[in-house]
Amino acid sequence: MIWGLGTSHIPAIGAAMDNGKTGELYWKPLFDGYAPARDWMRANRPDVAIIVYNDHANSVDLDVVPAFGIGTAESYRVADEGWGHRPVPDVVGAPELSEHLVRQLIDDSFDIATFNQLDVDHGLTVPLSVFCPDPGETWPCAVVPLLVNVIQYPQPTAARCLALGRALGRAIRTFPQDIRVAVFGTGGMSHQLAGARAGLINTPFDRMFLDAIETDPASLANLNREDYIREAGTEGIELIMWLVMRGALGDRIRRVHDAYHVPASNTAAGLVLFDVLEPGELVPE
């Protein structure tokens, strides 16, 4: 494992890139904040990215909503979310790693749904574009989609997501092939799309989260669903997916870069990038 990324997956971010608007006054501060992370990730390209995200009823409808699932396909088509496909490549899978992760996580007492066929929506493609804004004909790495239910109550607890991440890290480290793996946690930050609090953004909570995700993820795991919804909004509960990423990285990390911008669409947009330290490499003070 080489690095972990926490990033918002706001669909308007993808639309800004697709329509050449990243230099406009509204969008430029957001994309300027991404630039150092993009430079670093480009120099540390993974073979496979495990992207923790939620489907937005584009491929997985509300008839069957697993708590956790992993895609095991050879490839994943980009979903049509109602206005056509994004002009980005389809996603190449890593089925051998996917099947290894499913087996190891089930043996580690996590009940994982298996998606042998899956279209991927902005929850996955926007984070890929945050990493690689100009993929050309193919993305620079294969992808394992890891889906989390953050839409239908009851969602998995934050504590369960952190535990899943730790189990995911163990599973990655037992994969017999020598590959470079990055883990993305996606969604959030604070936002609410409907109801009396529509438009909610809680910057103090977001700032606290960006600090604690590095230094004290257990404190974030101790927050319950109601805490996340009260502080970050009904859609802000997506932040529990960042805890899967954080758990997978282990304790020996350093922060490479972070960014925070309000608003992107009607959402607080955050990014944090962690480097996983090599054995013997000193942990930064």
Largest sheet: 8 strands, mixed
Termini gap = 22 Å
Low-pLDDT residue intervals, each spanning 5 or more residues: none
Q: Tell me, briefly, the overall form.
A: globular
Strand content: 15-25%
Keywords: Dioxygenase, Oxidoreductase
Domain Extradiol ring-cleavage dioxygenase class III enzyme subunit B: 6-268
InterPro entries: Xdiol_dOase_suB
Pfam families: LigB
Notes on the protein architecture:
With 285 residues, the protein is α/β, with parallel strands linked by helices. It is 35% helix and 21% strand. It is built from nine helices and eleven strands. An eight-stranded mixed sheet has the order 6-3-8-2-9-1-11-10, sandwiched between helices. It has a three-stranded mixed sheet with strand order 5-4-7. The radius of gyration is 17 Å and the shape is globular. The two termini are 22 Å apart.
Features:
dioxygenase, globular, single chain, Class III extradiol dioxygenase subunit beta, 285 residues, dioxygenase activity, 9 helices, Xdiol_dOase_suB, alpha/beta, eight-stranded mixed β-sheet, three-stranded mixed β-sheet, 11 strands
Short description:
It comes from Nocardia aobensis. This protein is of the alpha/beta class.
